[in-house]
Specification:
This protein is an alpha/beta fold. The protein folds into 3 domains: 2-85, Winged helix-like DNA-binding domain superfamily/Winged helix DNA-binding domain (Arc Repressor Mutant, subunit A, Orthogonal Bundle), CATH 1.10.10; 91-160 and 267-294, 3-Layer(aba) Sandwich (D-Maltodextrin-Binding Protein, domain 2); 164-265, 3-Layer(aba) Sandwich (D-Maltodextrin-Binding Protein, domain 2). It has 11 helices and 12 strands. The longest helix has 28 residues, at 58-85.
């Protein structure tokens, strides 16, 4: 039936049995018989016929949409099958720290799977030191971590710089302040990232250096949960700049506020992999895609 759907779609796109028959290299009677056979199998009329003029019925329009979807799916399948036969990467294991998972992985995974749809991408998560250990021990082919490392046997490729920003609801009183300092965070209701991550350690160190004692209302390990709760409980949060995409702020009614002292929180997100070589084809391809996504201008 799928071949008949292709023939049906060609008739629709050429708006003529005559033109479609030439394109398909079929005689017009043979083409008419195929369309009639398809209608018979489906039990519906796909066209209203006005002499030589054809007009899609309502179910004909539905069938044409389905035919296009089948054509696209078949094209993707054949492309993936071709790449699989050509020996393209088949499996790669990527480790990512929890915070990195939420800020970095979505665009990278989309780019990689679009280029290598036949690949199976396995993801493991953990704290930064756990991801470093996983790559060192061969449990993960590659890792993405929110800090640089000088671990022996690993190559560390800096991808981008990040820092914390103060985030509040657009109606929060702090949005009215012309200039903010860390002292404005004292006794301020806040949602903090869960303990044990480098983001939280960096936040706590920053509070200690600045003599700030915030009013911690919640501790959560999900950036998405934090931004959803900020307007509800009228709190503030310190979140990585890389996560604060314009559509996230605008869509959630949030504002990112600048505090000079937060520039001290700058950290480098890095890709790590064994420096001794021996990367699989899949891993090498993932390294290349990662560099294309985050270092597009690099030679």
């Amino acid at each position: 039936m799928f071949d008949d759907l292709d023939i049906f779609a060609a008739v629709v796109e050429h708006s003529s049995l005559n033109r479609a028959s030439r394109q398909l290299n079929l005689s017009q009677p043979a083409l008419s018989r195929k369309i009639s056979k398809l209608e018979e199998r489906l039990g519906v009329a796909l066209f209203n016929r006005f002499g030589k003029r054809l007009e899609l019925t309502e179910v004909g329009r539905l069938t044409y949409t389905y035919a296009l979807e089948q054509r696209q799916q078949r094209s993707k399948f054949l492309e993936a099958l071709s790449k699989f036969k050509e020996g393209e990467p088949q499996l790669v294991t990527l480790g990512a720290s929890l915070t990195t998972l939420q800020t970095t992985l979505p665009p990278l995974v989309n780019a990689y799977m679009e280029k290598y749809p036949a690949t199976e991408l396995k993801l493991i998560t953990g704290k930064t030191h756990e991801i470093v250990s996983s790559v060192s021990e061969g449990k993960a082919d590659l890792g993405i971590i929110a800090s640089a490392t000088q671990e022996p046997g690993l190559r560390c490729i800096p991808l981008f710089e990040d820092q914390l920003r103060l985030v509040v609801s657009e109606h929060h009183p702090l949005t009215l302040s012309a200039k903010l300092t860390m002292s404005d965070l004292s006794r301020l209701p806040m949602i903090l990232f869960s303990k044990g991550t480098w983001y939280r350690r960096m936040t706590d160190e920053l509070f200690q250096r600045s003599g700030v004692d915030p009013d911690v209302r919640m501790e959560i390990d999900s950036f998405e949960a934090i931004v959803r709760l900020l307007p509800t409980i009228k709190a503030a949060a310190l979140l990585p700049k890389s996560y604060l995409r314009p559509e996230l702020l605008n869509g959630g009614g949030l504002v990112s506020l600048h505090i000079k002292e937060l520039e001290q929180t700058q950290r480098t997100t890095c890709l790590i992999h064994p420096s001794s070589g021996g990367l699989s084809t899949a891993a090498r391809c993932l390294v290349q895609v990662t560099e294309d996504v985050f270092l597009p201008g690099r030679e």
